[in-house]
Amino acid sequence: MTPSERLDATFTALADPTRRAILARLMQGEASVMELAEPFAMSQPAISKHLKMLERAGLISRGRDAQRRPCRIEGEALAQVTGWLEDYRKVWEGNFKLLDTLLAELQANQGKA
Amino acid sequence: MTPSERLDATFTALADPTRRAILARLMQGEASVMELAEPFAMSQPAISKHLKMLERAGLISRGRDAQRRPCRIEGEALAQVTGWLEDYRKVWEGNFKLLDTLLAELQANQGKA
DNA sequence: TTTGTCTATAACAATGTGGTTATGAAGGAT
DNA sequence: ATCCTTCATAACCACATTGTTATAGACAAA
C-alpha cells in the first residue's frame, strides 16, 4: 500500500460516525466484536464490516481469545494522519503569519501617507 | 450541520488523492478551476465536483473574478479536524505513558522479588 | 451581436459504501 | 456428542461516489 493509499484508507475509515464511536470505545481498552456492537442499533455483520475497514486502514488490530477476536487501537496510523494534517496546518498558519505581516506593513504605510 | 456531520464531510473530502492534491496546490495560493484542473488527466466537470465536496466540508471557499471562481483554502475546517485527531492522539499517548508506568512498576517489583 | 472562455449542471455508467438476512466455522460448555 | 456463543462471509438491496459527455449560463472580447 502506497502512502497515498494509506491516507485514502485512513480518512475513509474516519469518515463514518459508527467507526469513530468504535475508536472512541477502544480508547478505553480492548473490546470484543459483540461488546463493540452492543451500543449500536445495528447487526453484528455490519459491525464486522466496520472493523474490517478500520483494520485495513491500520487503525486497529485484532487478537484471539477463544472465540473472541479482541480489537485494540493501533496508534501508528493515527499518528501518521495527524502528521499529515499537522504539515498542512503549519503551512496554513505560516500563510496567516505572512498575511498578518502584510496587513501590518500596509497599515504602517497608511499611517505614513 | 452537526459536529459529527462536519467530521463526516471533512474526512470524506480528505479521503481522495485528487482532492488532497488540490488542497496542496491551494496552499501556494488561490487558483481558478481551470488552473486546478490542468495537472490532472480528468475533465473539468470532475474537478468541479471535487471542489464542491471540498467546499461542502468547509475546506475551501470561492470568490468571483469575472468568469473565474478562484478557490482558496479555509483553515478553520482543517484546524477542527486536526483538533479532533489531536484529542485522540493525546489519549492514546496517555495510554502509552500508563503502560510505560505499569511496565516500570512491574520491573521494579521484579527487582524486589 | 457574435464569438470564445470559464464554470456548473444534468444524465448516465461503473464502482464503492452501508446496511440487511442467512448461514457456516471455530471453539467453549454441558 | 451436542449445544451455544462468537464471529466472518455470502448474497442481496439502496444509495453515494467518481468518472464520463453534452449542454447551458455568465461574462469578456471582437
TrEMBL record, chains A, B:
<protein>
    <submittedName>
        <fullName>DNA-binding transcriptional ArsR family regulator</fullName>
    </submittedName>
</protein>
<dbReference type="InterPro" id="IPR011991">
    <property type="entry name" value="ArsR-like_HTH"/>
</dbReference>
<feature type="domain" description="HTH arsR-type">
    <location>
        <begin position="1"/>
        <end position="93"/>
    </location>
</feature>
<dbReference type="InterPro" id="IPR036388">
    <property type="entry name" value="WH-like_DNA-bd_sf"/>
</dbReference>
<dbReference type="InterPro" id="IPR001845">
    <property type="entry name" value="HTH_ArsR_DNA-bd_dom"/>
</dbReference>
<dbReference type="GO" id="GO:0003677">
    <property type="term" value="F:DNA binding"/>
</dbReference>
<keyword id="KW-0238">DNA-binding</keyword>
<dbReference type="Pfam" id="PF01022">
    <property type="entry name" value="HTH_5"/>
</dbReference>
<dbReference type="InterPro" id="IPR036390">
    <property type="entry name" value="WH_DNA-bd_sf"/>
</dbReference>
